[in-house]
Structures are given as C-alpha cells and as structure tokens.
Amino acid sequence: MPVDPVWGVDARPLHAVVRNVSTRYLAYGVDAALGLVMLPFNLAHLGKPAYGLWVLTASITASFALLDLGYSGASVRFVARYRALRDSKGLNEILSTLFVVYSCIGLAVMAVALALTPNLDTIFRVDAGQLPTARLLLLIISSYVALRFVFSVYGGVVVGFQHYHLNNMTSIAMSIAVAAVNVAVLLAGFGLIGLVAATTAVRILFLILYRRNAHRVYPALRVDPRAFSRDRLREVTGFSVFMLLLDVGNKLNYNLDTMVIGAFMGTAAVALWAPAQRLSDFLLRLANQINDALFPVVVDSHDGQRAEQLRAVFIQGTRLSLAIALPLAGGVAVLAKPLIERWVGPSFTEAGAVLQVLSALVVLRVGIATSNMILQGAGEHKRLTVYVGVTGVANLALSVALVKPLGLMGVAIGTVIPVALMAAFASFPRACHRVGLSIVTGVRKAVWPAIWPALVLVACLRVAMPIGSTGLVVLAVKLTVAAIVYQAVFFGVAIGREERRIYAKKARELMPRLTLLPAS
Questions:
Q1: Which helix or strand (DSSP H or E) is residue 132 part of?
Q2: Angstrom distance (rounded) from CA 156 to CA 83
Q3: How many CA atoms lie within 13 A of 252 on its CB side?
C-alpha cells in the first residue's frame, strides 16, 4: 500500500478495528498474566507494609491525571477532525499548542508532588519509619507522570489516526521489560526504592518509542512550541472542559478508594485491598470494550437523526455488554474466596469478600456504560456530567463514613451504592427516554435476557465448587465451563430466534474478512 508523505497509510476500517481491538485484548492478556505472577512475587519479597506503601504512592500520583483538564480526549477528537480535513498546518498548530499545555501540566505535577511530600504523614497513615521511603517514591513516580504528560501529545496522534495497535504493541513490550527488571532488582537484593527507580527508568525510556509511533503514522508531524496559538487553545478548551468534568466525576467514583483506605487504615490495609481491586479492574477492561467500539456509531446515529439505529445500539450494546460482564464478574464473585487464597495466600482472605462486592460494581458499570455512551454521544453530555459528579461526591462521602465502622468492606459498599442508584434512577431511565423506550421495555429487551442466564451460571459453580482441588488451574477451568454454559443459555434460549439469526449472519459476514486481512 503506498505511503502518503504527509498522512501515512490509511488502513481499511474493518482492518483497523480488528487490529486495534485484538492488540488491545492481547495487551490486557499480557498484563493479566504478568499481574497474576508479579503481585504475589512482590508481596513475598517486599512484605505487606512496603507493598501497600508502593500501591498508595502510585494511587496518589494516579490522581494527578485530573491535571489533564480533559485535553487528552479533546486531542484525539481534533486530531481525527484535522486529519479528515487534510489540514496539516492546522493539525500541527493544534499539536504544538497541546505540547506547550502538557509541558505546563508536567511542571504542575512536580509542583504538587513537592508540596505533598513533606505532608504525607498528615494526610495518610504512614508510619514514621516509612516516611523517607514514601517521600522519595512519590517524587520518583511523579517525575514519570510529569514526563508522560509531555509525551501525551504523541499518543493523541496515534489514537486519532486509528493506529493505536502500535501503542498496544509498545505497551506489551514495556510491560514485559518492566516485569523482567522488577524480578531482577528484587532477586539482586534491592529494596522498594531501587525497584521503583529501576522500573520507572524503563517506563521513561519507552516514552521515546511512543513518540516514534506518532511520527510513523503521521510523517508530517511537526511539534514546535513556537507554533503555540491562543486561538487553537480556545478551540480545544471549548470541548475539553466537559471531558474534565466527566473525568473528575469518574475519579471520585472509582480511583479514590485506595487513598481513603490509606488515609484511615494505613498501608497494610491498602495491600489487602490491592488484589481485589486489580482483579476487578481487569474484569472491567475485558468486559467494556464493546462500548468503546460503539461510540462512533452513537454519534453518527444522532447526527444523522437515525432514531431506530440509536435504539438498536442501546438495546444490543447493553445486552451484549452484560452478556460479557456477567459470566466474568459473576463467576469470579462466586469463587472469590478460594481464588484470592490460592493467588496471594490465606492471609488475604478478607479480600475475597471485597472482591465479591467489586465484582458487582463491574456488572453495574458495564451495564450502564452503553446508557452513558448514549447520553454522551447523543447530545446529553451535560446531564451525564451532573449524574457522574453527584455520584462521585456521594461515593467519596459514603466511603469515608463507612471505612471506620466496616473497614475495607465499608469502602467497597460506599462505592457500589451510589453507582447502583445512578444506574437505577438516572443513567438507564434517561437513556431509555432518549431512544424512545419505556423503562419496562428497556429492562425487558436490554437487561433481562442477559440477567437470568446468570442464575444458571451461579448454580453450575455452586455444584462444581466441592469437585476437585482449589488450585488456580482448576478454578480457571470451572470458570470457563460455567461461562460456556452461560453463553449457551444466553444465545440458545434467552434471545429470540430472529436475533440469533441476525447474530449468526453478522458472524458469517465477518469471519471471511478476518481471514483475508493483510499483514500490518
């Protein structure tokens, strides 16, 4: 395929979708496999207090993502827009302007880190003996976060050009390299500071590869701080402000739990929370990919005033998302206790109950993801921003109120309840209204066909639990068999004959194309 000297190679739409999504799942699979091995390895070599301290400081720096101010989402949108217009000059002005903005954000990250460092013990329950380590860890990780902001402009180019399979493959290489360095450093006898310094250095080196990917997909890329434009900044900021508000709400909902635990319970409790959170995050990423793929369809249906298509996206997106999430999260919830004990040891038994609650949260989040996507893409993003913001504030308040009397379970419950209320009384009802369905019809068509087969899955796992050992391989086999039974009931009984015919037709149309896709 000829390469345009300005715009690079235009991949065919189906090719791009399959390549991007498949490599994303591959990256998730590699991360999951490495996490399965590295978490107990690191716990064994560092101990709960040190590992909890690492997770806590990483969670603090993760909150710095709010300083993005919504520009990451806006950058992808404007890269795609100016690419479609074939306006190289305008695109480079946008990217140069964002480079200056991200550089300022990077400086702000280091300023915040320097301000937090001497006050860590007043905000979080960190032992006096851990304070010097905690402060140094915060500065090391913050330096990487600051540099990652500066390089974010290149990530926006790759995603906006629909070639993020390159970043997915780079991410896989980085994960493997980081894991290898992690093992080598701990086996050599170094402690937590040496471990974090070494793995952070590896991550910083890989930022150069992400920059190279951007130049590969957009050969005419020119980032020059002197091309900063106030007009371009106003143009991008007009959209980014709503992305910021949504991001703030999502951070309050899903990313502050670790810091609440660190503030009220200490680093050992953070270590107990980490396995349940890691597993639930992985389940969420696996189950929620369909909604990312459907978002452009929502925008197109709304702009083209195709109400029937928008309604079909809502019904099928919600139903299929739940059909993916329920066998994953439902199965893990049933086997949570033996799964946690065999993975990280019997001293983490408390995390099993937490994992059950967080698995329910995964189902709720995936279940309303299509509703939220409908609202965001079909002109009701302001209303969605209010929903997410109110839920986030309620989440934080309830988690803080329940952490002392109930401990880790209080934080988990404090997260689930506001999301459940938003799903039942805000996002799902409003999305039903937006696509012209009553709530009862929406539940009957989009939710119930995916929900009731889960009862069969739970029954199968309950029957299988006493059979065989409780090793990780045996548990994985039980989960797989139960998931197959669920899918057989869902596709064979829960949905109607006409829908089975449509699904089968789409699958037959897609498979020959997949086998004929050219190599990248």
A1: helix 131-160
A2: 12
A3: 23
Local structure of 4: helix, strand or coil: strand
Please give the Cα distance from 153 to 161 (Å, whole number). 13
Cβ proximity of 170 and 212 under 8 Å? no
What whole-number distance in Å separates Cα of residue 107 and Cα of residue 112?
A: 9
Report residue 8: phi and psi, to 5°. Answer: 70, -150
* 3-state percent helix, strand, coil for the chain, nearest multiple of 5: 85, 0, 15
For the CA atoms of 164, 170, 174, 176, the dihedral, rounded to the nearest 10 degrees, stands at 100
CB–CB of 49/132 below 8 Å?
Answer: no
pLDDT at residue 303 in the model:
42
Distance CA 135, CA 56 (A): 12
CA atoms within 13 A of residue 74's CA, in its CB half-sphere: 26
Q: Which tokens go with 130?
A: 């851990």
Q: Please give the full DSSP string across 492-520, using - where no structure is assigned.
A: IIIS-HHHHHHHHHHHHHHHHHHHTPPP-
User: CA-to-CA distance for 200 and 178, rounded, in angstroms?
Assistant: 8
The whole-number average pLDDT for the span 159-182 is: 88
State both tokens at 313: 């996206």
Q: What is d(CA 211, CA 89) in angstroms, rounded to the nearest whole number?
A: 19
pLDDT score of 108:
93
Buried residues in 17-37 as b, exposed as e (16+ CB within 10 A): ebbbbebbeebbebbeebbee
Query: Considering the chain, what percentage of its residues have pLDDT values greater than 90?
Result: 35
Question: Running DSSP on this structure, what letter comes out for residue 254?
Answer: H
3-state secondary structure of 194: helix
The owner of tokens 């609440």 is 260
Cβ atoms of 500 and 363 closer than 8 Å: no
Distance of CA 458 to the CA centre of its chain: 26
Q: Which helix (H) or strand (E) holds 422?
A: helix 408-422
| Average confidence (pLDDT) over 417-438 | 93
Chain-wide mean pLDDT for the chain?
A: 83
More confident residue, 269 or 243: 269
Q: Is the pLDDT of residue 180 over 80?
A: yes
For 114-152, write each residue's pLDDT tens digit: 999 988 888 888 888 888 999 999 999 999 999 999 998
**Do 61 and 117 form a contact (C-beta atoms < 8 A)?**
no
Rounded distance, CA 329 to CA 57, Å? 28
Interacting residues of 494 by C-beta distance below 8 A, sequence separation 6+:
449, 450, 452, 453
CB within 8 Å of 204: residues ≥ 6 apart: 143, 144, 147
d(CA 239, CA 241): 6
